[in-house]
């Protein structure tokens, strides 16, 4: 049997007296693209941060590539936060150089090629880019890491629909689906559906379903949107 790339066992998380996750158990064994889908407050960000080793669970265990996740796991994991996390005073080029200098797995060539193909001006300061291009640069920097696990929290947040579709295509084209696992969270399921291989449905801090899109179609004759309506209603 293939060992799981990501394994969660009975994971719960409480922030003071607010329960964010309850007994989450699943194993992500296959590479490909996973969508963590659920309404606002269902625990998507908390789940991704725990998988990235950025937050500690209150209970349960998390393993990435058969090793317990810790802050040091960032050498196997690229995490894209929903927050605006770029240094706005730097130019795009300087930001690429910075990533190259601090992350041994960062491919400068891949980053520069993507930036060129997106027609983003490398000498512009991040703060002078459009919102869409800032989001693209953030995603380029994540996709340029040659790591087995990519985690993206709401990568399309705050962008208009045309830009969103364009960015989704760019993400999918640049993930090595044979070698990498991409887990992205969203509450806008219909636009990501065509790109997903697997879904994880979240509601009120619990995982209601973890299945491949193919299984959903074969076993229940359902699209992701139909399954989501049934499971999350
Ligand atoms: N730092 C925090 N302190 C207290 N409660 C928190 C904190 N972060 C999240 N929560 C609570 O935990 C629950 C899950 O939040 P989380 O952000 O993980 O959900 P989400 O599905 O990502 O939401 P959204 O789609 O709105 O980003 C919510 O009830 C939220 O209010």
From TrEMBL:
Keywords: ATP-binding, Nucleotide-binding. InterPro entries: AAA+_ATPase, ABC_transporter-like_ATP-bd, ABC_transporter-like_CS, P-loop_NTPase. GO terms for molecular function: ATP binding; ATP hydrolysis activity. SUPFAM superfamilies: P-loop containing nucleoside triphosphate hydrolases. Pfam families: ABC_tran. It comes from the Bacteria. Residues 6-229 form the ABC transporter domain. This is Spermidine/putrescine ABC transporter ATP-binding protein.
């Amino acid at each position: 049997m293939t060992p799981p790339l990501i394994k969660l066992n009975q994971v719960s998380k409480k922030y003071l007296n607010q329960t964010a996750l309850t007994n989450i158990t699943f194993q992500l064994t296959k590479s490909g693209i996973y969508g963590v889908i659920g309404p606002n407050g269902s625990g998507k960000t908390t789940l991704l941060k725990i998988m990235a080793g950025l937050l500690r669970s209150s209970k349960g265990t998390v393993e990435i590539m058969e090793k317990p996740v810790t802050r040091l796991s960032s050498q196997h994991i690229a995490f894209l936060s929903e927050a605006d996390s770029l240094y706005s005073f730097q130019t795009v080029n300087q930001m690429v150089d910075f990533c190259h200098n601090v992350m041994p797995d960062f491919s400068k060539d891949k980053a520069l090629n993507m930036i060129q193909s997106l027609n983003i001006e490398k000498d512009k300061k991040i703060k002078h880019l459009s919102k869409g291009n800032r989001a693209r640069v953030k995603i380029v920097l994540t996709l340029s890491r040659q790591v087995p696990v990519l985690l993206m929290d709401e990568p399309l947040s705050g962008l208009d629909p045309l830009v969103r579709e364009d960015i989704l295509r760019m993400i999918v084209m640049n993930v090595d689906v044979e070698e990498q696992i991409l887990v992205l969270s969203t509450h806008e399921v219909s636009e990501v559906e065509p790109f997903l291989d697997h879904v994880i449905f979240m509601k009120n801090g619990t995982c209601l379903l973890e299945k491949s899109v193919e299984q959903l179609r074969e076993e229940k004759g359902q699209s992701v949107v139909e399954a989501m309506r049934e499971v999350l209603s």
